[in-house]
Write a structure and sequence with these properties.
single chain; mainly alpha; 82% helix; 0% strand; elongated
Length: 83
């Protein structure tokens, strides 16, 4: 009984190997292997929207950074005067 099971498993493996060989031969015929999904096209209008959104984002980040630095400087001055 175990021999029949072993034979069946080997036949299944042979089928898988033959399918893999067929697939690799097809890839060779095409001359290239497909990699990834490729680069997505972005229309000019959408690119401009993203650009504006990021410009606003970074402007806000710079403003927040300036405000934090200013507050830190003021706190240092207050601490220096009280010391």
């Amino acid at each position: 009984m175990d021999l029949y099971k072993a034979i069946h498993q080997l036949e299944l493996e042979r089928i898988r190997i033959e399918e893999s060989i067929r697939h690799l031969e097809q890839v060779l015929e095409l001359g290239h292997v497909r990699r990834g999904r490729g680069r997505r096209f972005m229309p000019e209008a959408e690119r401009q929207l993203v650009s504006n959104r990021m410009r606003e984002y970074w402007a806000n980040r710079r403003q927040e950074s300036r405000e934090k630095k200013k507050a830190a400087r003021e706190q240092v001055l207050v601490m220096a005067k009280s010391a």
